[in-house]
Amino acid sequence: MRTPSIYSQDDPLTEALKPSENETEEQRRVRLQQETEARLVSERIDEDLRQERERMRKSRGDVKLLLLGQAESGKSTLQKQFQLMYKPHSLDQERVSWRTVIYFNVIRSIKHILSTLESWDDYIEGVDAGPTKYVPAVSSPSPGPSSPMMSPRTPNGISSRSNSPFTSTAAGKSSVASLRRRLSPLVAADTQLADKLSGGVAVSGSGKGNVFVRTGWQARTIENALGRRRQRPSVDVEKTEENFHDPLIEEIARMLEASKDDIRELWAHPTVKGLIAKRRMKLDEWAEFFLRHIPRIASAGYIPTTDDILHARIQTMGVSEHVFDVTIHGKSVSWHLFDVGGARGQRHSWVPYFDDANAIIFVAPISAFDQYLEEDPRTNRIDDSLQLFTQICSNPLLKSVHLVLFLNKTDLLRAKLDSGLKVKKYITSFGDRVNDYETIVQYFRAHFLQVHRKNNENRRVLYTHFTSVVDTKATQRIIGNVRDSIFRGYLQSAALV
Ligand SMILES: Nc1nc2c(ncn2[C@@H]2O[C@H](COP(=O)(O)OP(=O)(O)O)[C@@H](O)[C@H]2O)c(=O)[nH]1
Ligand SMILES: [Mg+2]
Are 384 and 425 in contact (CB under 8 A)? Predict the structure, then answer.
């Protein structure tokens, strides 16, 4: 018996699909099976198209929220807080893949400490040879022209023999040398880890030697590892993350466990502590967090906690979209959160998203008054944030967008002030104001408000929050607040339709 529905007189494939005159029973069975499969594929395509049309239709009423700000301002961390609040299970699914990033953060930090110590070794030798040698402050920016908005200052390397942070030079050097030797296999794994995370993609137009990930890297990290394992027929793989084992990551986990005491010793080393205290060694902000927790992170069977994930650092490439269903007053609306790459070379990719954005959260790290852009070491970070904020406020495409400003990293600002840092040293226009937290945050806030006021044709409101987006409880309260204010605007515009 034939199944006529699939054939048509007009269909050019009719001839090809028509059964031959003397079809055997086996041929007929194969043909029918192929026809069924073809029909299923066709139905699946139709269903995908229908869903896409439905998504397009529905998304007209969705909220589109952009997270903007310079690199390292806290955009991706804020995105994780949204995820934690509105889709917590998805963060659980990713938990294992964050281990790769955290190991990478740890190894990069160790590498940085060791290479900084190496330059200080040279310094000590240079001092021994004669006192005139110039010593650059390690990883501090080179002096350059000062910038227009807040008259920031670029620091110079200061050289002084009496400033040497070394307590016991000979003993210190020999213990560092043996730590370096023992930690070298771990440090060497850095390149492989970087390759794994970026999938071998090198990106230009951003900071030096950084590793980027694209949307969905968490799932791909898991799939790649599973894919490799599936090729080995003797291994029975269950596709759950709990059973996910990447050979490279497992090897690094073993090395970390074996090096736990060495890492702890390096981190507690008086030379390292001295260099950090005298600001001759500048570690990434997250480095300190992970090195402090090394006994836990370097233990066998380590699974990242939510706090670890919030502190993990990996640069975003391009724009990644995250969708959440947000319910308020019994009404559920889809929110599309767009997290962007913030380095200068990445900013052009934001523009296509400006057209139909409803809201922006601009994230500006106010702890960064003593820091400079990695992609342009002459530009003070606060000044860059102000310039960027000016561009956002004055962009005609964004003139009716709901605007929220997060003055972020307030916890790090407090820590810097506690350690004796003076804003005036980096931002001359701060002048002789009192160097305390409250005065400083209000001073920075006033500058952002001024930018907004000068670029506010539509007389829109600017909602400002002082934040530390690694603090879950406080951030979730603020997210609730932002949600309410966006919804008020959303309902007003819906009422006008
Ligand atoms: N202590 C502290 N760290 C933060 C804060 N916001 C972000 N970070 C850390 O700063 C690093 C860069 O943040 P990220 O969200 O990746 O910045 P992005 O480049 O803007 O996406 C990460 O290691 C974060 O954990 C904050 O408010 N306080
Ligand atoms: Mg990011």
Answer: no
Best of 70, 77, 104, 217 for a ligand 1 pocket test (most atoms within 8 Å of beta carbon) = 77
pTM for this one?
0.78
Give the whole-angstrom CA distance, residue 151 versus residue 143: 14
Residue with tokens 């205290």: 277
Reading the block at residue 19, the tokens are 């059964």
Residue nearest (by alpha carbon) to ligand 1 atom 26: 409
Closest listed ligand to the CA of 80:
1
What is the mean pLDDT of each successive set of 10 residues along the chain, which is 497 residues long?
Answer: 48 62 87 90 86 67 93 97 95 92 96 90 44 36 48 50 48 79 94 81 44 62 49 35 71 96 95 90 93 96 96 90 88 92 94 93 98 94 98 94 97 96 96 98 98 90 97 97 87 59
Structure tokens at 158: 């200061």
The architecture (CATH level 2) of 63-91+316-496 comes to 3-Layer(aba) Sandwich (3.40)
- Best residue for ligand 1 mutational test, from 470, 472, 473, 479 (most atoms within 8 Å of Cβ): 470
**Cβ < 6 A, ligand 1 pocket:** 69, 71-77, 285-286, 310-311, 313, 316, 342, 408-409, 411-412, 468-470
